[in-house]
Amino acid sequence: MSAAVRAGVHALVLATAPADDRVLVGVSLSERARRSARHAGIAPGRIHVVRDPADLAAARRLITGPLVVVRARDQVVMPALVRLLAPDRPGTRVAVDATGAHAGALRLEPGELPQLWAALDADLAEGDHAVAARILATAPAAAVPGIVADTVVRADSTTHHVARTAAEARAATAWLWRFIHKPELDSVFTRYLCRPLARPLTHLFVRLPFTPNMITVFSILVGWLGCALAAGASYGTHLAGLAVIVFGNGLLDAVDGEVARLRLQFSRAGDWLDAFGDHTIRIGLILALGRHVAAQLPSLPMWPLALATAAATLAAMAPMYWYCLSVHRTINLQHYGEVTGGTRGWSSQLSSRDFTDYAFLVLAASGLSVISLAGTAAGALVALATVVRAHPRAIRRRRAARQPALA
């Protein structure tokens, strides 16, 4: 349970009539604001979308605790704007833009709700601005450029974007597409090769009625199909299977996350699905390489090598699963980098899934999949040795993470 839920915080999303509710990148302004409030930790049942006086009257009867007011009539709202107000922390706060003007979000204590209701009764379209102006007029240091008091929090270019006019809506759409990148996690190959290749699919799926989890499930099925084909003995079938993994599963694996970030539909279930698919396809690919190479080189122990590589990979994953599940409650193994002290250097780039998949495809086209299998075997041994060496540190980190819960 989030701190905002425990604090009993409600959210009021000020929206326009459905016919005027602008849709950008597959999501209306009001729905995006609602999802932003939810991702900021406010319970779905405490988020009230107000379009007309009847909605306002209904929300007023239900709201008794602290309130976050988010303006969705003329701007795109991201979760960062709601988090900026620290909904779970007591106090009155107003978000302002770089000019010091109200940025369309404020937090009010229960005792301040009467003035909000009065302002919205008088002017539902602009009443939140009037309340914000009264707070800013008395806020310490609010008028001093560059100084932000506790009552005044500064929004930036990652929190919201105006969308009043058609030109602003086009600019807001381009701004939203910036959020598909994960600079802290994307490898060079992902950012400059895979994401550009996946972009047309993302443009398509963001407008279709498929959730990111549906896309993830489809990508997993495509990946398993690719592994089955890649296990074939013939050159053509093996190459076709790797192509399916690279251009089918690989691109769809980028699309599901991009759609989730564009629509604010990311979820814990999605993280689990994505990780499960990625890991099972990795093991399937190892076995597929082994079966194909064994058929090509029957005099060499290629199949035992593949089995040993799959076993070493699973052995390396087991402690990583244990740590990520017990500390982060997820099977997304990227969190294990905090234990190994993983870097963003070239060794990390060359070991990324995107690079290895394309390398496997190129080697298969050259008839050299035995090199892919040998390289995967060496990588599995290095990964296992790294995890064994880092495991004591993982145990200490897990103990430290559990200390507050046990105190």
Topology:
Elements: H1 3-6, E1 10-14, E2 23-24, E3 27-28, H2 29-39, E4 47-50, H3 53-62, E5 67-71, E6 75-77, H4 79-84, E7 93-96, E8 102-108, H5 113-122, H6 127-138, E9 152-154, E10 160-162, H7 166-176, H8 188-205, H9 212-230, H10 235-263, H11 268-296, H12 302-328, H13 337-340, H14 346-350, H15 353-365, H16 369-406
Parallel strand pairs: 1-4, 1-5, 7-9
Antiparallel strand pairs: 2-3, 5-8, 6-10, 7-8
Helix pairs in contact: 5-6, 8-10, 9-10, 9-11, 10-15, 11-12, 11-16, 12-16
Would you kindly provide a written description of the structure presented here, covering whatever features stand out?
It is a single chain. The chain has 407 residues and is α/β, with parallel strands linked by helices. It is built from 16 helices and 10 strands. The chain has helices at residues 3-6, 29-39, 53-62, 79-84, 113-122, 127-138, 166-176, 188-205, 212-230, 235-263, 268-296, 302-328, 337-340, 346-350, 353-365, 369-406; strands at 10-14, 23-24, 27-28, 47-50, 67-71, 75-77, 93-96, 102-108, 152-154, 160-162. The strands form 3 sheets. The protein has a 6-stranded mixed sheet, sandwiched between helices. Strands 2-3 form a two-stranded antiparallel sheet. It has a two-stranded antiparallel ribbon with strand order 6-10. β2 and β3 (27-28) form a beta hairpin. α9 (212-230) runs parallel beside α11 and α11 (268-296) runs antiparallel to α12 (302-328). The model is unreliable at 343-350 (pLDDT under 50).
